[in-house]
């Protein structure tokens, strides 16, 4: 028995009016453009076009799903009304039959809403328009990532999006180690050179993916800028093996000199500024502050520590446990309540930060600015511990809305939270870095001179 079908048989695509299109002639040649060798510029343009097309398709799909939702809800409401009244019948469906025949169509007239595909909720839908420019971390499906993104970079991006890698230095270390694997597996295509091909065709897709997962921190931005400058310094005739080996050595040097050695020097210099019987106040948890306090205790000094904790992150709880384990007397406060008398009783305030801008302002976890202002009003010194890889030599910041992030874990339709705040340089007594000029304690405004001193030999 023959059956009707609105679709076309295999091998013959159907037209909109139901007719079958003529099959393509068998002697049609293959697409010539796929066989032609494209230049690097054409490959780059093609990759950008494909990426733009993919993004457009995703946006169109989301817009279509969002527009279909109100229509479906309106249709369900109409069905509810008809079902409640129990009048008439829907078009295209038989009327009530005898016995159990009516049960076959009961769901369509009983007011039940038909099942609908789940529509992905926009995480930024509740954010006011005035904060729409502030970015927020998000998980990117690995299937949506660029085909050239290395598996090691995919793993780092997922960790950043879920805050498995949180502070700037841990994110920098993971990124550089992932880039190390990218360089090891890289092979220069025939007819190209590493100095011209690696950055636009290999490194940039990795950077774009990481930025989509979470906005890039300042330490990552500085390290990537230095890495690109290092690649661009290679001569076009430099052998690939030699260039790759030099890049791997440079990454190892960066991780050792700018992170490991910098932490050691900063902790040593800061510990020297702690005197016998002092009371050190800090906010939340920062690895440099922890290393400094433990080093000062191991040197034989007796002092106390007051920890004002971030009421959301609770990193100060772990810091208090570790300090008590080495014999340091700790006063722990779970929030900013009673801040004034605590900073007034402190000898020094030690703070860590995510970045220091060219105008000397500090980018740090939310709540840091409150502690710094209260300390300066009480006449207590505020010392910031920060590696120079976190210094931004080109940008300035005067508020917390220009360079910030929205906390994805605390973002609801009613409220949201910013991850960082901005502390003006007038509330900072000094900055301790890995440079030992003036005992390592330099004014916040001296950032540019420090950067010029240490970045030139690093690129060379």
TrEMBL record:
Subcellular location: Cytoplasm, Cytosol
Annotated region (Disordered), positions in chain: 1-123
Alphabetized SUPFAM superfamilies for the sequence: NagB/RpiA/CoA transferase-like (SSF100950)
Entry keywords, A to Z: Cytoplasm, Initiation factor, Protein biosynthesis, Transferase
Keyword rRNA processing: no
Pfam family, any one: IF-2B
GO CC list: cytosol
Coiled-coil portions: none
Start-end of Basic and acidic residues biased regions: 47-62
Skewed-composition ranges (Polar residues): 24-37
Low complexity biased stretches: 63-74
GO molecular function: transferase activity; translation initiation factor activity
Entry superkingdom: Eukaryota
Listed Gene3D superfamilies: Translation initiation factor eif-2b, domain 2
Primary site of residence: cytoplasm
Oligomer and partners: Component of the translation initiation factor 2B (eIF2B) complex which is a heterodecamer of two sets of five different subunits: alpha, beta, gamma, delta and epsilon. Subunits alpha, beta and delta comprise a regulatory subcomplex and subunits epsilon and gamma comprise a catalytic subcomplex. Within the complex, the hexameric regulatory complex resides at the center, with the two heterodimeric catalytic subcomplexes bound on opposite sides.
PANTHER family for this protein: TRANSLATION INITIATION FACTOR EIF-2B (PTHR10233), TRANSLATION INITIATION FACTOR EIF-2B SUBUNIT DELTA (PTHR10233:SF14)
Family: Belongs to the eIF-2B alpha/beta/delta subunits family.
Name of this chain's protein: Translation initiation factor eIF2B subunit delta
Record organism: Canariomyces notabilis
């Amino acid at each position: 028995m023959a059956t009707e079908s609105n679709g076309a048989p295999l091998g013959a695509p159907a037209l909109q009016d139901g007719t079958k299109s003529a099959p393509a002639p068998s002697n049609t040649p293959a697409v010539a453009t796929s066989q032609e060798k494209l230049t690097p510029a054409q490959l780059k343009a093609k990759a950008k076009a494909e990426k733009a097309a993919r993004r457009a398709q995703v946006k169109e799909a989301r817009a279509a799903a969002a527009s279909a939702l109100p229509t479906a809800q309106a249709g369900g409401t109409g069905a509810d009304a008809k079902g409640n009244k129990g009048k008439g019948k829907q078009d295209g469906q038989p009327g009530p039959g005898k016995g159990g025949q009516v049960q076959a169509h009961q769901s369509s007239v009983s007011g039940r809403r038909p099942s609908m595909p789940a529509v992905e909720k926009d995480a930024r839908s509740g954010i006011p328009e005035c904060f729409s420019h502030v970015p927020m971390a998000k998980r990117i499906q690995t299937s949506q990532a660029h085909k050239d993104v290395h598996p090691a970079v995919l793993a780092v991006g997922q960790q950043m999006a879920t805050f498995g890698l949180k502070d700037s230095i841990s994110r920098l270390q993971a990124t550089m180690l992932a880039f190390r694997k990218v360089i090891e597996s890289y092979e220069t295509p025939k007819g190209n050179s590493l100095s011209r091909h690696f950055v636009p065709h290999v490194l940039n897709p990795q950077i774009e993916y990481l930025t989509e997962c979470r906005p890039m921190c300042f330490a990552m931005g500085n390290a990537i800028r230095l890495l690109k400058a290092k690649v661009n310094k290679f001569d076009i005739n430099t052998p690939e093996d030699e260039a790759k080996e030099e890049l791997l050595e440079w990454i190892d040097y960066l991780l050792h000199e700018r992170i490991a050695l910098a932490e050691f020097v900063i902790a040593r210099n800061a510990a020297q500024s702690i005197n016998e019987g002092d009371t050190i106040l800090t906010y939340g948890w920062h690895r440099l502050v922890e290393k400094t306090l433990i080093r000062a205790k191991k040197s034989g000094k007796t002092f106390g520590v007051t920890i004002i904790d971030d009421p959301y992150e609770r990193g100060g709880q772990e810091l208090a446990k570790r300090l008590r384990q080495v014999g340091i007397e700790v006063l722990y406060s779970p929030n900013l309540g009673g801040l004034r008398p605590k900073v007034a009783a402190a000898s020094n305030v030690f703070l860590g930060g995510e970045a220091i801008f060219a105008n000397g302002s500090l980018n740090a976890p939310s709540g840091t600015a409150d502690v710094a202002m209260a300390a300066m009003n009480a006449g207590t010194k505020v010392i910031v511990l920060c590696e120079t890889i976190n210094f931004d030599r080109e940008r300035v910041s005067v508020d917390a809305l220009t360079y910030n992030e929205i906390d994805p874990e605390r973002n609801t339709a009613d409220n949201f939270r910013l991850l960082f705040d901005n502390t003006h340089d007038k509330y900072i007594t000094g900055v301790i870095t890995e440079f030992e000029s003036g005992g390592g304690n330099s004014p916040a405004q001296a950032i540019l001179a420090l950067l010029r001193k240490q970045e030139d030999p690093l690129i060379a």
